Automatic annotation (TrEMBL):
The lineage of its organism: Bacteria, Pseudomonadati, Pseudomonadota, Betaproteobacteria, Burkholderiales. The keyword Coiled coil does not apply. Pathway: One-carbon metabolism; tetrahydrofolate interconversion. NADP(+) binds at G166, R167, S168. The gene is folD. The keyword Amino-acid biosynthesis applies. GO terms for molecular function: methenyltetrahydrofolate cyclohydrolase activity; methylenetetrahydrofolate dehydrogenase (NADP+) activity. Its EC number is 1.5.1.5, 3.5.4.9. Catalyzes the oxidation of 5,10-methylenetetrahydrofolate to 5,10-methenyltetrahydrofolate and then the hydrolysis of 5,10-methenyltetrahydrofolate to 10-formyltetrahydrofolate. Homodimer. NCBIfam families: PRK10792.1, PRK14186.1, PRK14189.1. It comes from Roseateles koreensis. This is Bifunctional protein FolD.
Length: 287
C-alpha cells in the first residue's frame, strides 16, 4: 500500500470536539443549538442513520428532537410539521430524512424548510447561495469532503485538477462548486462521459460519487492522486463498500478515504457544524 488513509472517524472526532466547545459556549449564553430530524416511514437503513445523527448531537451537547411518523402520513401533514419547526425557537436545523414515501413530493418538502434552518443544504436557496458565494448552508457530504482535503493540507487548490464523477444535486454538483470555490480546475464526469479513465488519469483529486461499485480502478488513477470515495454500496456478502476499487487504487493513489470510516462519518459531522453555525448566526442577529 502506498496511499495514506484519510481517516473520517478520527477527523470527525476532532471536528466534533470543536463543535462541542462552541455548543457549550452558546449554551452558556442561553442558546442551546437544536436539530430536528424528521423521519417518515420505517425504512430500516433510515432508522439506523437517523439514530446515529441524534446520538452525534447528544454527544456534542446539541439539543435534538426526533420526529417519527407513519409511512401513511400525508404530504399536507408533513408540510404542517415543517411549518411548526420553522417557527420553533429551540430548533436551528431541520433535517427531513430522504427518501420519503412515494406519495410525498421530496422537492416540495425540502422547499418548505426555512432556508436559515436548512442544515442539509438541500434547499434551492442553499444551492443558489453556494453558486454565487453568498452565506447559506453547504450540503454536508461535499462539505465533509472539503474538510478531508483541508486536513491533508489541501485547502487552496489553485493549480490542481479536480475530477468529480457524478452530478447529483446533493453531492456531485455542490462538490464541483466547492472545489471551484477553492480555486481548483474542475471537471464533472457522468454516465454520458466518453472516456472516463482518460479524464481521471489527469486528476490530482478524484471524487467518486456515483453509487456503483468499482467505478474507479487503479488504471484510472494518476500516481500520488487524492481519491475521495463518497459511494455507499453493498457487495455480494452484504459488506459496505464504496465506488472505488479500494484494494487496487490504494497501491497507486497518494491519499485515499476508506468506506466505511471515511466520508460517511464526516457527513454527520458537518450536519452538526451547520446546526452550530445556524444557532451562532441567530445569536448574531439577536446582537
Ligand atoms: N436529508 C438527508 N440528509 C442526509 O444526509 C442523508 C439522507 N437524507 N438520507 C440518507 C443519506 C445517507 N447518509 C449517511 C450518512 C452517514 C453515513 C455513515 O456514517 N456511514 C458509516 C457506516 C454506516 C454503516 O456501517 O452502515 C461509514 O461510512 O463509516 C452513512 C450514510 C446521510 N443521508
Amino acid at each position: 500500500m502506498t496511499a495514506q488513509l484519510i481517516d473520517g472517524n478520527a477527523l470527525s472526532q476532532q471536528v466534533r470536539a470543536e463543535v462541542a466547545k462552541r455548543a457549550a459556549a452558546l449554551t452558556a449564553r442561553g442558546l442551546k443549538p437544536g436539530l430536528a430530524v424528521v423521519l417518515v416511514g420505517d425504512n430500516p437503513a433510515s432508522q439506523v442513520y437517523v439514530r446515529n445523527k441524534v446520538k452525534a448531537c447528544q454527544d456534542a451537547g446539541l439539543h435534538s428532537v426526533l420526529e417519527k411518523y407513519e409511512a401513511s402520513m400525508s404530504e399536507a401533514e408533513l408540510l404542517a410539521r415543517i411549518e411548526a419547526l420553522n417557527t420553533d425557537p429551540a430548533i436551528h436545523g431541520i433535517l427531513v430524512q430522504l427518501p420519503l414515501p412515494k406519495h410525498i413530493d421530496d422537492h416540495k418538502v425540502i422547499e418548505a424548510i426555512a432556508p436559515e434552518k436548512d442544515v442539509d443544504g438541500f434547499h434551492v436557496a442553499s444551492a443558489g447561495a453556494l453558486m454565487v458565494g453568498e452565506q447559506g448552508f453547504k450540503a454536508c457530504t461535499p462539505y465533509g469532503c472539503m474538510k478531508m482535503l483541508e486536513s491533508i493540507g489541501m485547502k487552496n487548490l489553485r493549480g490542481k485538477h479536480a475530477v468529480v464523477i457524478g452530478r447529483s444535486n446533493i453531492v456531485g454538483k455542490p462538490m464541483a462548486m466547492m472545489l471551484l470555490q477553492a480555486d481548483a480546475t474542475v471537471t464533472v464526469c457522468h454516465s454520458g462521459t466518453a472516456d472516463l479513465g482518460a479524464i481521471t488519469r489527469q486528476a490530482d483529486i478524484v471524487v467518486a460519487a456515483v453509487g456503483k461499485r468499482n467505478v474507479l480502478t487503479a488504471d484510472m488513477v494518476k500516481p500520488g492522486a487524492v481519491v475521495i470515495d463518497v459511494g455507499m454500496n453493498r457487495n455480494e456478502e452484504g459488506k459496505l463498500c464504496g465506488d472505488v476499487d479500494f484494494d487496487g487504487v490504494k497501491e497507486v493513489a497518494g491519499w485515499i478515504t476508506p468506506v466505511p470510516g471515511g466520508v460517511g462519518p464526516m457527513t454527520i459531522t458537518m450536519l452538526l457544524v451547520n446546526t452550530m453555525e445556524s444557532a451562532e448566526r441567530q445569536l448574531g442577529q439577536l446582537g
